[in-house]
């Protein structure tokens, strides 16, 4: 079964009209997982798949009368800045980029994350989040110019006390949806074509593999 097939099944399973994928980027221990957990605490969390490298949270919400299924992707255990696997970016519709206001290095690394994001997803909406403001509220008077320079929305948040967490994720979902609906962006069209082409080729080759590997246990 291909990726499109799985998405369609998801839409049926959750009785959703739309589906978007939102990814979270940032150094280790900036609070990516805590932010998602805080947001999802109040929400309906139908399913949570966890692996060593990746947590996928499924979340449904209603926007303008439409049921929207949101896939939140979160990585774990990135000890320091390291490139993400391309599949992490694959078909993402929005990105939440996080740094820790208490650790300057995590802010300094934002351009690295942003550069990699733009290599894979040149056009998707991205928001920048300064987390852990509860530890020292004075930091909200400091200026963090990276977001402004790149023209990205910026939020001061705290996963610990909940400040702005719902706002960030609701905004990100809205942006993801409008990106998905309005994106007529040329690169995206090209990527879609290439993906379909690639999937078809993979299907063909996996059909062949199935023929030769029948009876073998599934090792995936
Ligand atoms: N004071 C404070 N601590 C926080 C906040 N958010 C997260 N933390 C703490 O920061 C640490 C790291 O949080 P995680 O959510 O695990 O960080 P992460 O970005 O998911 O880290 P990786 O999974 O390694 O990439 C934990 O000890 C949290 O309790 C916050 O808003 N305020
Ligand atoms: Mg984490």
Overview of this protein structure:
- One of its GO terms (molecular function) is GTP binding.
- It comes from Cyprinus carpio carpio.
- InterPro entries: P-loop_NTPase, RabL2, Small_GTP-bd, Small_GTPase.
- One of its GO terms (cellular component) is cilium.
- The protein is an alpha/beta fold.
- It has 8 helices and 7 strands; from the N terminus they run αβαβββαβααβαβαα.
- It has helices at residues 3-13, 32-42, 86-89, 104-108, 110-120, 146-150, 165-182, 186-213, and strands spanning 18-25, 47-50, 54-63, 66-75, 94-100, 126-131, 154-156.
- The protein has a 7-stranded mixed β-sheet.
- The radius of gyration is 19 Å and the shape is globular.
- Residues 26, 28-34, 76-78, 131-132, 134-135, 158-160 line the site of guanosine-5'-triphosphate.
Short description:
By secondary structure, the protein is of the alpha/beta class. It is 42% helix and 22% strand. Residues 198-220 are annotated as: Disordered.
Topology:
Elements: H1 3-13, E1 18-25, H2 32-42, E2 47-50, E3 54-63, E4 66-75, H3 86-89, E5 94-100, H4 104-108, H5 110-120, E6 126-131, H6 146-150, E7 154-156, H7 165-182, H8 186-213
Parallel strand pairs: 1-4, 1-5, 5-6, 6-7
Antiparallel strand pairs: 2-3, 3-4
Residues 26, 28-34, 76-78, 131-132, 134-135, 158-160 line the site of guanosine-5'-triphosphate.
